[in-house]
Design a protein that fits this description.
Length: 190
């Protein structure tokens, strides 16, 4: 093989790798989120501006548990440690489920609702329309669409209930990790 042929082969290989990476934004998003494993961040409520449940409270997320296929992110609202976002990577799609627990660790009656991305999305944003289980469990949430956007500075968790004015947005500041919090309710053994 001549030097020119070797160079052409190398250029083709680099191009193929680059093209493959561009075609897998789901994996890029997943890998970017994995970089935050073990870290905790504080954030703020962006929408709605006034909210009794979230407004004026310390909002904390902790990327507590990561494997190749599952990332668990407890989300605390003040002293309320009932919420954990569970992301699962499978067949180039990501599922988002919401785990809700009572203070004693038992599951809430409304639990593990969410959805799965319907396409590859982008490396900086993934969408999760409500799945059938969610629609059956919470009929009003049949038109829910959750999305997470992620860049070097902000992790943004969002919810829009299509056909309504319901919108929710929390931005977490990724530039300033905070001390990792204690376990969420029901997860002390993990």
């Amino acid at each position: 093989m001549t030097i020119k042929m070797k160079m052409m082969f190398c250029i083709c290989m680099i191009s193929a790798v680059t093209h493959a990476q561009e075609e897998n934004p789901t994996k890029e998003f997943w890998n970017s989120l994995q970089e935050h494993c073990g870290k905790a961040y504080q954030g703020k409520l962006m929408l709605p501006k006034e909210d009794k449940a979230f407004g004026g409270k310390r909002l904390t997320m902790h990327v507590r548990s990561c494997s190749d296929t599952v990332i668990k992110i407890p989300f605390f609202v003040g002293d309320d440690k009932s919420r954990t976002w569970i992301l699962t990577y499978n067949n180039n799609r990501i599922s988002l489920k919401h785990d809700h627990r009572h203070k004693d660790g038992t599951e809430d009656s409304i639990n593990f609702y969410g959805g799965t991305s319907t396409n590859k999305g982008k490396a900086t944003i993934q969408f999760f329309p409500a799945d059938n289980a969610t629609q059956n469990m919470i009929p009003a949430a049949a038109t829910n669409v959750w999305w997470i956007s992620l860049d070097k500075t902000i992790f943004s968790y969002n919810l829009k209930r299509l056909g309504t004015d319901r919108i929710f947005k929390v931005d977490m500041n990724l530039l300033n990790p905070i001390e990792t919090p204690s376990a969420p309710w029901g997860w002390e053994d993990e």
